[in-house]
Amino acid sequence: MLVHKTPNQPTTKIRISPNLVFGDTSPAIIAGPCSIESFDQLLSIATAVKKLGAHMLRGGAFKPRTSPYAFQGLGEEGLKIMKKVGEMVDLPIISEIISTDNLPLYSSYLDMIQIGSRNMHNFDLLKKVAHLNKPILLKRGMAATLEEFLMAAEYILKEGNSQVVLCERGIRTFETSSRNTLDLNTLALLKLKTHLPVIVDPSHAAGNREIVAPLARAGLACGADGLIIEVHNQPEKALSDGPQSLTFKQFDSLISQI
Amino acid sequence: MLVHKTPNQPTTKIRISPNLVFGDTSPAIIAGPCSIESFDQLLSIATAVKKLGAHMLRGGAFKPRTSPYAFQGLGEEGLKIMKKVGEMVDLPIISEIISTDNLPLYSSYLDMIQIGSRNMHNFDLLKKVAHLNKPILLKRGMAATLEEFLMAAEYILKEGNSQVVLCERGIRTFETSSRNTLDLNTLALLKLKTHLPVIVDPSHAAGNREIVAPLARAGLACGADGLIIEVHNQPEKALSDGPQSLTFKQFDSLISQI
Amino acid sequence: MLVHKTPNQPTTKIRISPNLVFGDTSPAIIAGPCSIESFDQLLSIATAVKKLGAHMLRGGAFKPRTSPYAFQGLGEEGLKIMKKVGEMVDLPIISEIISTDNLPLYSSYLDMIQIGSRNMHNFDLLKKVAHLNKPILLKRGMAATLEEFLMAAEYILKEGNSQVVLCERGIRTFETSSRNTLDLNTLALLKLKTHLPVIVDPSHAAGNREIVAPLARAGLACGADGLIIEVHNQPEKALSDGPQSLTFKQFDSLISQI
Amino acid sequence: MLVHKTPNQPTTKIRISPNLVFGDTSPAIIAGPCSIESFDQLLSIATAVKKLGAHMLRGGAFKPRTSPYAFQGLGEEGLKIMKKVGEMVDLPIISEIISTDNLPLYSSYLDMIQIGSRNMHNFDLLKKVAHLNKPILLKRGMAATLEEFLMAAEYILKEGNSQVVLCERGIRTFETSSRNTLDLNTLALLKLKTHLPVIVDPSHAAGNREIVAPLARAGLACGADGLIIEVHNQPEKALSDGPQSLTFKQFDSLISQI
């Protein structure tokens, strides 16, 4: 398998910008809101997280929501806002693509393309995104086994694109006191089995901002190559995932801990 | 929500052919191989299951496989074979679509379109398939909650297509002595909450043909509106899902039990 | 293993009374309240379920409750009430024992001893109860695998007591729309692997009386040798498990369906 | 609830010896074999872990094993060996008690009593062990929710014994590439909800010594008050849990990382 590492093979470095190389010694920090809501909102957040130490800006333009009546994102307009904001604050940008429509156009706005948990098994999307030859962040499905997660990455590598970063974001278990159980057992095993960088998403695992920082520290201590964190200027007014979004102050505190 | 039933609302009848109406009093029986492997294979199986009492022929042409190196199905050629075989044995046909490419063409071969478990959360696919105005069999995701399953159906109904049949096919749990735990609790709750017909797939839940028949009987006793069963002429040589495919003799025995 | 069946070995018959033989052709029906609350309550329920067709009376005297502040049962007084009521209505009685204290005394009141889910792994209790040489109903732990369940029974058989009836009562999964997912996959496999009778507890699986009847029908259709059902004269006032207890009318309806 | 913390309440300190105070600033390290196998084995391990920095010696004398035919531990003889070894190397000792028989005698050998995962719901044992007024290490059940775990501790505190240390040791999930998924979400929430110290058992979570160290680091980074680690002089010959036991060299390396 292309994803497997040989003995002593180092982690593959995936370079996004001079300041952001996944798999390098210092952890990559991606931060931003769950959803792009407006130019002003994104600029405010991007300016803050850049200043506080983030290396990349995240933000959702196409949101796969459980209910068809929930906010579905700003679509292409969101990507345009994001591109402009990224240039203004000098941060590379990442966003999720959920459809194969307009792939070349949509991906042209982005420095890295995210495949979300709900689409980890969408092999058609994986293959078509692979062909864009852009770096890809592949999130683990909520109920995907370690083996299935690696095989999803293999679908991309097999198409000739080896710029894949894996993301552990919590699995669905019987425990409902938090959103999804961050599976650091699998993170530790992934670091033994694959040469691809692996980052951790403590925000979606937590579902509650009170425990994002301890989970972030735990992920890095366990060997993660980086973090992706939801941060919002007004979490209580966020159109999605407000309860798990950090305030600027909390993000500042988190950065100082790691 | 469009999927919810009002008190005393009867199950919505979804008519595929004179002999197949989902939601009617007698259970709908769909049978066939996991994958369409050849014209001869499919004709052999279709002839047998028709004679033994099936109302619809199933068979996979596009297979979403965990590994990119596993057999991926015959693609459009499989659909053509299926259309011909369906006409020869006079059975309506159902197959899974996994990509939005060529949707009108591919769906034109079929009497009913299946959305598989791995794509239950692929909202882009759900919406585009909805617009074809064909009956849809929507399988529950392996780790989807009852609420998420109903919301996935709502994505289709919201687009104006109410010909949706739900399919419970087992959920991922800690128990690995079988493939996926058939969740009849949720079947029973679905029958209380939605007016859509709900069928059961005991083959994928079982992963082992020895327990397909008891699970099929259980599903119907619990109120299912039908069954979808994997049957193969030579299960030990099947290109996929052989261990859970019934022989003709076992399928005959199952039909006589229900 | 003593629990395993040889090819074609019939189910072991466990005789409690002339009207109740587990493993015989007709299903064994155990019914009664979650907790014994008073003599009048139990007599009312016992009279009703006897008339409606139950073969054995259930009722809890020692209740293992999640919170130490919840009603813990009437203790020995409850067993005395139960013995008297059982004699009055001519039904054998079963209750759970949760401690090794006073085992000979407490068991002397009972016709069958229940080991609850929380104690399936309490091997000390299993061994000591085994030595009483009374029939035992062993409930599956909420997160016990099929193999662990059989090994718990093996602890009892190894001590020389082979009068063991297994009970599938639902497993803990991510799905919280019902209490515990009734695992009929494992029931079907147990019927293939062990000669011990296996019954189903749809009440604890459901957690909601609306779906007890469909789950009970499903269990029997899947091959269960009997049912254990919670029934209460005033479910809305029950001291425990009210929401999943059937009314007399619902129990009557269930019996007529099976 | 007695287990809940008030705002700003510090973690309760539980003092075992001058060098071991759970809830104090530096993490408590418990180490030793899964099972006590002989005097020589235990002395060898105890000498090594003491020298490498452990504060307490662990070792099983009564082993709750899935199969009744597996090694069940040396029983009281094991406790006597442990007491002697503990005195020789000057380490306090902890072992699991699984029965209420001979409680005062057995506990008299020990400095701290362990309640294992399989007995977290054995409320009779919890109450009787509570009355011994010794420090207790309470391990979370494999499928216990956060709330159930706290309520099990409440059973002990309610009896007047507040010397309880909680231990997160992994939960049962669908993921079988490791033994049990270490649930650091719940650890982080426990640190917010209870004043009791909480430690982590990475050995049982891992089931594989290759990932014990990263999970141990993650647990401490997440806020754990200590670790309990399986260490063996000859892991490949251990009578139980060999694959997850660290060698002395691995334990040394782990200690130097934390």
Descriptors:
homotetramer, 9 helices, alpha/beta, two-stranded antiparallel sheet, 10 strands, 35% helix, eight-stranded parallel beta sheet, 258 residues
Explain how this protein is built.
The structure is a homotetramer. With about 260 residues, chain A is of the alpha/beta class. Chain A has helices spanning about 40-50, 75-90, 105-110, 125-130, 145-160, 185-195, 200-205, 210-220, 250-255, and strands at about 15, 20, 30, 55-60, 95, 110-115, 135-140, 165-170, 200, 225-230. In chain A, the strands form 2 sheets. In chain A, strands 9-8-7-6-5-4-3-10 form an 8-stranded parallel β-sheet. In chain A, strands 1-2 form a two-stranded antiparallel ribbon. In chain A, helix 1 runs parallel beside helix 2. The mean pLDDT of chain A is about 95. Chains in contact: A-B, A-C, A-D, B-C, B-D, C-D. The interface of A and D includes residues 170, 178, 183 and 205 of A.
Strand content of chain A: 15-25%
Structural class of chain A: alpha/beta
The pLDDT mean of chain A sits at 97
Largest two-chain interface: A-D, 38 and 38 residues
> How many helices of chain A in DSSP terms?
9
Q: In one word, what is the shape of chain A?
A: globular
**Count of DSSP strands of chain A:** 10
**Sheet with most strands: strand arrangement of chain A:** 9-8-7-6-5-4-3-10
